[in-house]
Design a protein that fits this description.
The protein is mainly alpha-helical. Helices cover 68% and strands 0% of the residues. The protein has helices spanning 2-7, 11-28, 38-56, 76-81, 84-92, 96-107, 112-119, 123-148.
Length: 152
Amino acid sequence: MTVCLRYARNKADAEDILQDGFVRLFQNIHQFKSEGSFEGWMRRIFVNASLKKYQTKKWNMEQSGMDHLDEGSMDPDVISALSEQEIMHLIDQLPDGYRIVFNMYVIEGYSHKEISEELGINEATSRTQLLKARKQLQHKINRLDLIHERPV
């Protein structure tokens, strides 16, 4: 369910993806060759089920107008102060194209070539989507830091 929630826009979509993933898992269990971890094989099925859900909706690559943001460094203390739940919430707020590429590259460990093949996009588009996702996350984290700053 955790994998499905990362790709879905809401819990209902995640539950649909989870159900589709289990159907595919049971239909294809005979294809598992015990050459890697069962968990990794299973995770890939659920990622693919998630991608199929959004490909059928034909999500478009977003242009958010965030290109002007500085890629400057971020205080590591700000990031380490965020909980996993807060970070996942920030990722969930990304537009679909950014969020999906970010999840696939950063969390699932796909290469840009694999992402481009899975999503039917250019490798350059995958890199651009990842860069824009990182910029947008950085912007959101910096805004959180400014909100939480207190005068000494």
